[in-house]
Sequence to fold (108 residues):
Amino acid sequence: MPEELKTEQNIVKGCQSQVWLHAAMSDDGKMMLVGDSDALIVKGLVALLLKVYSGSTPNEVLMTPPEFLRALGFEGNLSPSRANGLHSMLKQIKLYATAFDYMLKLKK
Fold:
């Protein structure tokens, strides 16, 4: 993630570590997500979420349940604060998707 995107506006609230997420919309209507953290474990969680959701349409993001997190065993193996942070990151991605989905509907 470029340093210039590590701004207060892109900080994910509710995370124990510093986490930044930034979303943009491509010309073909796909969400392009970038993110980073100052904690190594959280960097991995951010990378996992970006792999799943970046490059998807806002509607696809909204319709993709986070079942993969349970299937991978993250919820039972993360500390409560890390699990809360993971949910905060997921919530932020869904909020971006909701906003972009609304913008796309306005264009139609």
